[in-house]
Amino acid sequence: MGVCLKYLMGIVASESEAIDGIAITNEDQIGIKHAAFSVYTAGNAYFEEGNDMVELLGNTLPGKNNNTGWGIDFGANYIINKRLSVSAAVNDLGYINWKSDTKQYQFNPVDYSFEGFEVLQVINI
Predict the structure, then answer these.
(1) Nearest CA among 96, 104, 106 for reference residue 11
(2) Is residue 66 within 8 Å of 60, Cβ to Cβ?
(3) pLDDT tens-digit profile of 83-114?
(4) CB of 99 within 8 A of CB of 66?
(5) pTM of the complete model beyond 0.70
(6) 96, 8 in Cβ contact below 8 A?
(7) CB of 89 within 8 A of CB of 74?
(8) Rounded distance, CA 47 to CA 105, Å?
(9) Do residues 85 and 78 make contact, with C-beta atoms less than 8 angstroms apart?
(10) Alpha-carbon dihedral angle through residues 13, 18, 20, 21, given to the nearest 10 degrees
(11) Handedness of CA 92, 95, 100, 103 (dihedral sign)
């Protein structure tokens, strides 16, 4: 039997609620329609322009990052005889509390349809 306890530090995360939408393409139109939705992020300062990458990577060191949590692995092996054994394991159970650099982005509903145009009208022939 074995157990492994792990201290976790998250760097970047992104999550969205259900996004309900459709895209339509056919010979008559191109259309996009989706409801409003939110995206939640943490640690995305790595991707913002003007940030010093060395400083940001330094923030991933222990004690410099508030995106922390715990994980656990455990497993067991039972030897039935010399030629047969049974093993089981559960890996990567855990959580991270995302607290550093958290943001929420709201996206408004979209209902867009493009039905084309007459080329001759555009070039005035």
Answers:
(1) 96
(2) no
(3) 999 999 999 999 999 888 888 888 888 888 88
(4) yes
(5) no
(6) yes
(7) yes
(8) 15
(9) yes
(10) 10
(11) positive
Q: Tokens 């497993």 sit at which residue? A: 75
Distance in angstroms (rounded) separating the CA atoms of residues 45 and 66:
14
Both structure tokens of 44 = 């995305």
The strand pair at 37-42 and 13-16 is best described as antiparallel
Give yes or no for a contact between 72 and 94, defined as CB atoms under 8 angstroms apart: yes
| One-letter-per-residue 3-state SS of the chain | CEEEEEEEECCCEEEECCCCEEEEECCCCEEEEECCEEEEEECHHHHCCCCCHHHHHHCCCCCCCCCEEEEEEEEEEEEEECCEEEEEEEEEEEEEECCCCEEEEEECCEEEEECCCCHHHHCCC
Distance separating the N- and C-terminal Cα atoms of the chain? 82
- Return the pLDDT at 87: 97
The total of other beta-carbon atoms located within 10 Å of residue 43's CB is: 23
